[in-house]
Amino acid sequence: MKMKIDFVDVEFGHSDIFFMDSRAAAPSPVKPPSAGLRHTNSRTFLLEEDGVPQKIEFFFASDPSAVIEHTKKVIYLEDDDIAYVGHCGLHIHRIKREDGATTFRTIQTLEFELGEIMKGCYDHFMQKEIIEQPESVVNTMRGRVSFADKKVVLGGIKAYIPLIRRCRRIVFIACGTSFHSSLAVRGVFEELTEIPVSVELASDFLDRRCPIFRDDVCIFISQSGETADTILALRYCLECGALCVGVTNMVGSTICRETQCGVHINAGPEIGVASTKAYSSQVISLIMMALQLSEDRASLHERRKEIIDGLEAIPAQIKTVLKLEPGLKTLARTLLFNEKSLLIMGRGYQYATCLEGALKIKEVSYMHSEGILAGELKHGPLALIDENMPAILIMTRDSLYPKVQSALCQVTARKGRPVIICNTGDDEISDKYNTIRIPVTVDCLQGLLNIIPLQLLSYHLAVLHGVDVDCPRNLAKSVTVE
User: Which position among 37, 161, 256, 350 has the lowest Cβ density within 10 Å, counted as fewest Cβ atoms?
Assistant: First the structure.
């Protein structure tokens, strides 16, 4: 079946009326409107194989997952589109005319199934999405990483790789969880590409009107692809002439349409407001991008091989961490449930993990939590530490392990009660501490495993407090306003 849509532009005046003929083939030409009309008609209908029009049922929604129960065919409206459904079908008008604006609205087919947006045997979508992470990270890598050849190919940016390699800096621009995923990969991006990298909060970036140049590459990360501040930052960077790359989970979203190239993270639909599996898939997508950009550097061959081997093992390791859920549920009930605040500390790659874990706890359980860079402990946060302040320290094995040990000594010397996230088999961590043992992996991938206990803690704290886990108060899944 084919769908026919006639588009017209609408001008709010009587003298300067503009009419746009449909670009699609039609049985007969469309006549222009008379001079006195304020608008003209457009029609939408399905054509059977014999050419006979068929009636259509229409659904309006702010997110495609809301209509998957009824249809997989969707049209995404552009800014300034007006859609009206009447007895004659779908009418799409334009508020204003722009040179070069397309007159086509592509009918897209949703690639996920109804079962993917149902809770199934789980109590909440957030719980389901945390437990789905072994599968979602495999989907993110499927068809892109050749573990045998140690190669990564992202088709969405392949044609732009030479241009990105020649840029003078890379700017990540995002909000919330997407900002944290950018922060999590900044170090490995700089290491592999040897290009300066900055990470910007989209709202602050717009407030400062940050200088952007033609030889910059700006990467915009958003789960929905509809985050208002990120879209405004994207349009600002396009005006400045920079190459703009999108990293989203929604095909056909505004960021997908307006960027020159991009990567789809393939995490699957995420219903819970608190992002979980999308964070993991964003981190892996950005690491794959860094790996592809560094293919021409022979000196980094062993490092790239180490990271790709780590990616191959990560789904099984995530499954191992998920087995810790019963113990984490007990920890949430016995140690954290009655607390008002929580500090989460780490260094290096784990600083982003601290910020993301603190965000999850505050947004779903309404408990104050703060992610702290352990190196800044003596510059103020140490004043908060006493026997009544719970703290979580991320002390997995990497080059900064001795420095985090120093932070642990500072906390215990002030009678703090730390819970330590550490690697399995780390004998330097005393049994007197509450520990969460995590498998060891490559330093730049360790955060993918470390974040899961924090996601599970936030989930069980929210359940214990009796709040709405999937729809926290005052929050929305897609932030479509500034």
Answer: 37
Q: Buried b vs exposed e over 131-159: b needs ≥16 C-beta within 10 Å?
A: bbbbebbeebbeebbeeeebebbbebbee
DSSP labels for 226-275?
--HHHHHHHHHHHHHT-EEEEEESSTT-HHHHHSSEEEE-------SSS-
What distance in Å separates the CA atoms of residue 454 and residue 320, rounded to the nearest whole number?
Answer: 15
Q: Say if CB 62 and CB 42 are below 8 A apart.
A: no
Q: Is the dihedral of CA 297, 300, 302, 306 positive or negative?
A: negative
State the greatest distance between any 2 C-alpha atoms of the chain, in Å, as a whole number.
85
Q: Which tokens sit at 172?
A: 């990540």
Report the sign of the C-alpha dihedral through residues 112, 246, 137, 423, in that order.
negative
Q: What proportion of the chain, given as a percentage, has pLDDT over 70?
A: 86
Q: List the beta bridge partners of residue 341.
A: 368
Q: CB of 337 within 8 A of CB of 461?
A: yes
DSSP three-state, residue 94? strand
**Residue range 63-87, pLDDT digits in tens:** 777 788 888 888 888 877 888 887 6
Q: Ranked by mean pLDDT, which of 45-59, 62-76, 86-100, 431-445 comes out on top?
A: 431-445
Cα 346 to Cα 268: distance, rounded to the nearest angstrom: 30
Above 90 in pLDDT, residue 61?
no
Confidence check: pLDDT of 227 > 70: yes
Name, in order, each residue with C-beta under 8 angstroms of 10's C-beta and a sequence gap of 6 or more: 38, 39, 82, 93, 94, 95
Does the pTM surpass 0.90? The reply is no
Separation of alpha carbons 37 and 45, rounded Å? 24
420 Cα distance to chain centroid: 27
